């Protein structure tokens, strides 16, 4: 992927991420599938990591791995911040995992990209 492809991919990821409803989470793989790159879950993770330098606020805390683990929490600087942000939205987290993951999961597949 060259830089402009990177930017386009990351921007699509950010557009999906900004639509995750408050109080819901989605996964790297669900975002990848929604933007037409189902094999690119790891690249979605890279985009989430880069989202902190984006000028707009991106709710990266709402993106977890496919089983609800807070796998990106190290990117937040403070190791507890991702969990705190989710708990502020009434999403229960225990041992770095969203509890009742299916209840809080939001599937972006219906978005138009």
If you had to describe this structure to a student in words, what would you say it looks like?
The chain is mainly α and 113 residues long. A hairpin with a 2-residue loop joins strand 3 and strand 4. The mean pLDDT is 92.
Defining traits:
two-stranded antiparallel sheet, Arc Repressor Mutant, subunit A, 113 residues, mainly alpha
Summarize the structure.
With 113 residues, this protein is mainly alpha-helical. The protein is 39% helix and 7% strand. The protein has a two-stranded parallel sheet.
DSSP strand (E) fraction? 5-15%
Radius of gyration: 13 Å
Taking pLDDT < 50 over at least 5 consecutive residues as the criterion, the unreliable ranges are none
Helix and strand content put the structural class at: mainly alpha
Integer count of domains: 1
CATH domain topology? Arc Repressor Mutant, subunit A
Helix content: 25-40%
Tally the helices: what do you get?
A: 5
Distance between the termini: 19 Å
Strand order of the largest sheet: 1-2
Bulk shape: globular
CATH superfamily: Winged helix-like DNA-binding domain superfamily/Winged helix DNA-binding domain
- Which CATH-level-2 architecture? Orthogonal Bundle
**Average of pLDDT:** 92
The ordered string of helix (H) and strand (E) elements is: HEHHEHEEH
Total strand segments: 4
């Amino acid at each position: 992927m060259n830089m402009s492809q990177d930017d386009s991919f990351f921007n699509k990821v950010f557009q999906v991420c900004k639509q995750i409803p408050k109080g819901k989470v989605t996964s790297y793989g669900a975002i990848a599938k929604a933007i037409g790159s189902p094999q690119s879950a790891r690249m979605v993770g890279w985009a989430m990591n880069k989202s902190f330098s984006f000028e707009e606020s991106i709710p990266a805390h709402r993106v977890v791995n496919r089983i609800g683990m807070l796998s990106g929490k190290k990117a937040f600087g403070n190791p507890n911040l991702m969990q705190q942000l989710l708990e502020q939205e009434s999403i229960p987290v225990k041992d770095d995992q969203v509890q009742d993951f299916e209840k809080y999961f939001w599937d972006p597949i219906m978005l138009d990209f």
